[in-house]
């Protein structure tokens, strides 16, 4: 399976990483910025100044997910748009959304279901969009 690393279109991976960053930035920075604070129980606290890790962490983690998806898409022989979309949904729901909920169900997250519902659309959309990019731009 790992012999597919040489077959991956690394420009497609880069494009998918950029798309992931844009989706995440818009989603968390604009669409759900205030509800996100509520989900974390921090709506009454002064806004923390984001550090470098706030931006680089998600980008690096997203790149790892995208490279992993690229390997799996190649190894599984996914070549059509519909299969790319299904793969993105499977990874999005099966790994990303379920792991988000698993992480959120601890005492540090006062509203784990709300937190998961805020994150899930971004993770699903990102997974589908990046899978489409990786599938079509082979």
Automatic annotation (TrEMBL):
Transmembrane helix is among the record's keywords: yes
InterPro entries linked to this entry: DUF1761
Coiled coil (residue ranges): none
Keywords: Membrane, Transmembrane, Transmembrane helix
Keyword Transmembrane: yes
Family matches, as Pfam families: DUF1761 (PF08570)
Name of the molecule in the record: DUF1761 domain-containing protein
């Amino acid at each position: 399976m790992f012999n597919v690393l040489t077959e991956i279109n690394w420009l497609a991976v880069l494009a998918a990483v950029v798309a992931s960053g844009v989706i995440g930035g818009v989603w968390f920075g604009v669409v759900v910025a205030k509800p996100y604070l509520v989900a974390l129980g921090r709506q009454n606290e002064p806004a923390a100044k984001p550090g470098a890790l706030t931006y680089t962490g998600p980008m690096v983690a997203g790149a790892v997910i995208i490279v992993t998806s690229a390997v799996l898409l190649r190894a599984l022989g996914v070549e059509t748009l519909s299969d790319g979309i299904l793969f993105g949904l499977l990874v999005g729901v099966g790994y990303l959304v379920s792991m988000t909920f698993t992480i959120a169900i601890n005492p540090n997250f006062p509203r784990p279901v709300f937190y998961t519902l805020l994150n899930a659309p971004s993770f699903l959309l990102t997974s589908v969009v990046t899978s489409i990019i990786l599938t079509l731009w082979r």
